[in-house]
């Protein structure tokens, strides 16, 4: 590729005569030289397709390091690509381990109580939460490339999985089928994630906009918090629906007989403790460990308290039983046939995508903060593999947790070894101390979950959305209210729908702008943005602010004609518009419908005796104007490099008229 | 609004000192003056929303004539809007009627045999085709605003309706239910069309791209022609599937016993006659009436021939029975409840949209040729009303026919009165001569349909698609092969899917370009397009060719960083890149994700000690850069009006370095 450093003067001939002729008419600071646009260098079709495919699927050039390497080196590099631990592990040092050890212990103390609570959200036994904090983090440590992410079960995915699975199987009546379906969903969540990464389709998750995610997460947080009212109030007959109306009705209806004041007392007092701890951590960043260990302290204190007072005999619900020992195999329990296969697949795809979105967002955030590169597609393969292996070892869908990753980062983690440390502590917990959780009151778990999910509600982001982009704000609110008032799935659908609608609206109704000349320069800009810009009499300059595609070609044509009509009606005393200049600088592409629209515009303008002039079409657009013969049709001398060139060429003629 | 005619010098202050300072360094033809970008005038939120809504739904300003009119006048205008015949009818003259009469007779002679054949395509009795050429054109003549469209049943919609209805009800075993479902579908097709127009959602049909329509129409034409092999070969056991493989298998399997040579002889000889007539009409435009009356002549001659020779006794299938008399009412036969309601609704929506697409395309084409304005949404209300009334009077979905509209135009039609003339001739036919069609051989109808649909295959358009836009070509071929090898619905789905994928791909993987200075000018353009453009040492100038949205923000950020890395690797001996200029001229909008991406880009560049400079952000983008404080963050002096200004400001510093 010619990178353009050498000054090649081939395209600078012609137009000299008219330049001289025009010269005298120009203001002193205007340039009489008009550069020819001409035909751009021909693009090779195959090369073009190759470039398009490369930009779409391999935009980060993942094969670059493999180029021109001997076979053996390629194999080693391949292994290192699949298991990044092989490359960063060689530089691992004791000082790094110190950071990782502290961080690992901190996130372990945070995750153990959360895991038990999140498993309940997914309608699973508490040990499954712990299982999912043992195997998946281990696998991720070997395959993942983020240094800060903390792997394990998370609230939103647990809720999503719980509600979607319960729609298919009753978790109480058909406990075993429910569990098998959960494994199946986890398996396919992993397959989906790994497949997206392997086929380099990672960009698909970008279609869920940031705004929609903020709304969805906030809505899910509210929903999860509401669900915890069951545990917090000790209510026995609680609705199965997740919308705010049903839940509040459940809470109010059970007011006279269903509330248990002992439960409420324990729950609320520890909730206050947790929130105060959180507040302290927020005020003083160095005390980040206070909110990190507060949940474990709550669990220990409350468990001890219940054990001493035998509060469980007064209606305080407790965990009661939690399986001891390491993850059992669950390979034979996944449905690979029968009607549950399709259901598991569907749920797995949805849960997998949501889990992926969360993990990738976390990975990118922290990679940006520490300034290291993260290959999104490779991350997906790692996350997918981790969930596939998880589904074979009694885990449910694990992903990166926002809150725990932040703690991990603040506690000074250096590499994914912090996940290994956490995983080992969870292993010890499973072996040694699970029986101690017997007397842990459910109300504590509810308080811990509530205080955890409150962090998912991002007020500041919502305020920023409102300030910057109203449409984003609507998307955010749509997703939020969809989740809160209908269900998690509806909220998700709304989020995706609004995200797509935004893209489609932009390409259907693009903006057009009237241009004027900025005084003392040769540039033409939107007169609305630069009120100082002056118009050229007899010339109407319109800029089209979008690629011209089938979805907007007709609109653009009609909009340009409307500019012309408005102009003629508003300024009847001014000289008649003789030239319509369409500035195509922002027109990045045009398709056959767009060419048709231009042809129709040309015909309409001819009938009105207005000349059509195009300025600054890009390479692709110019190629297509030539391929369709439209350039010949309007005349190649009607295509200019800049608006100024076009005005310089035609304005003098105006003066004579 | 300030239209910018008055030269307002308020924004021209500042920077004078630095201008002078820079002056000496400039080449003679460069401008030392750097215009400030500043904050754009604040937009009112309500006004902004109002403008967005207006451009989306009322872009053609339909209420303009009603403004500032007395009430009575408003009522008259309203009536005239709903029934355009009230306005153009007042200028109607005998000379116009002459043109309309001839055109009406010509299209009537063309439509009568076609109607009978198309009704068979929809698995309906032949008279329903004629019914649909009587009532709908009458209604359209009063409500429609196209002067050239010829209304009636068309091949593609008949096929679509026939296959979709047959999937629900068997047209032979449950003939009455089938007919009722057809009326139901027609009713909802009309409701869909009218509703789209009424709610001004007409732009939705623009989402089916021209390329996809060409492919879909071509595929439908091939499918319809293949279906006619049944009639042409006189085959009795014919497949119900529409794909080419099943049809050809049917034809080949029936070769030894199923073909009827008398039928084949009649069919093929008249097909040759029709194709020759078509060829003559194409060669000499003044003989357009030859192909127009050829079908009727074929019908008359072949009917007379069969009547004389009693060929029907030798296995030549004939029409046999065709109901005499005017359309009976069918209001009580539409399903307004029961399971068929939903099915009829679904089929109606699809058929209505396809019919609409065809009619609007025809209307626009001829309006463009005669240069009159057509309100797409009003047209939809007219077409919808016509189908609703049609469904109450035993008609099935009618729309504008491409071939008959062309004949109408060439025969010199002046207004929609030609549709009234045609309608009256069909009325006479229904009253008087339907019994004469008894001996018309089916093979003739097959020949007529084949010769009619051949015109739907638009080779030239396909060649043009290939030349102009490869992606459009793929969409076209996808739709074509989808229809031919699978089914009409699959083809339609592929067409819509590819159309959307194109839009999404564009906003996911936008182009970025490296800019260089065009010699002897102050403009910067893509160095690939203008190989003569020269680069500025130490400055990397990248143009982003798309709005920056959530779907591409991450890609754009990474792509810009990749440009920088490539640059640094390729030109190691050149001065280090100190300034990265991002030209935002084509960036028409940015959302919160886009702002985040810019912030991340800024952070990354800071770490690499490269300064980020933005040039020419549009009004909306600039507003959001200010709202998000990003403008303050990078410094307002880092935002320039043009790339040249930015280079002029920073390049001298480079020289000192």
From TrEMBL, chains A, B:
Gene3D superfamilies (UniProt xref): STAS domain
Residue intervals of the STAS domain: 529-650
Cross-referenced InterPro entries: SLC26A/SulP_dom, SLC26A/SulP_fam, STAS_dom, STAS_dom_sf
Any one Gene Ontology BP term: transmembrane transport
Transmembrane segments: 149-166, 178-199, 211-229, 259-280, 287-308, 347-367, 379-399, 419-437, 444-466, 478-501
Membrane topology: Multi-pass membrane protein
Superkingdom of this protein's organism: Eukaryota
Any single GO CC term annotated in Swiss-Prot or TrEMBL for this entry: membrane
Keywords: Membrane, Transmembrane, Transmembrane helix, Transport
Cell compartment(s), UniProt: Membrane
Protein name as it appears in the record: STAS domain-containing protein
Organism of provenance: Tagetes erecta
